[in-house]
Write a structure and sequence with these properties.
Ferredoxin, iron, transport, 4Fe-4S, alpha+beta, 104 residues, 4Fe4S_Fe-S-bd, 13% strand
Length: 104
């Protein structure tokens, strides 16, 4: 992400916060369905990493889904969510409390 992109993103986020539009987002990986394809880590390396077997997890909170994703990483998170071939990346407006199936 370039400096110009970051400044533009900050301006947009500031406008959204001022308008009351920003909603917290949380993410978790369903490790039971993850196939270790690497798509999420490629899309959002600051959010997702892999364990010894290559299964993805959220680095922000050791895959508990309880830490709000920073605004600057939301686009990357959504790219990972949309690019997951097994729908193992979960996103919600509320914490997952360690349960990737909580909102299904």
């Amino acid at each position: 992400m370039s400096y110009k992109d970051i400044v533009n993103h900050i301006d947009i986020v500031t406008e959204l916060i001022a308008g009351g539009i920003i909603v917290a987002k949380y993410t978790i990986v369903d490790k039971e369905t993850c196939i270790a394809c690497g798509a999420c880590g490629a899309a959002a390396p600051d959010i997702y990493d892999y364990d010894d077997e290559g299964i993805a997890y959220v680095t922000l909170d050791d895959n508990a889904g309880v830490v709000e994703v920073p605004d600057i990483l939301l686009d990357d998170m959504m790219d990972a969510f949309e690019g997951c071939p097994t729908d193992s990346i979960k996103v919600a407006d509320e914490p997952f409390d360690g349960d990737p199936t909580k909102f299904e």
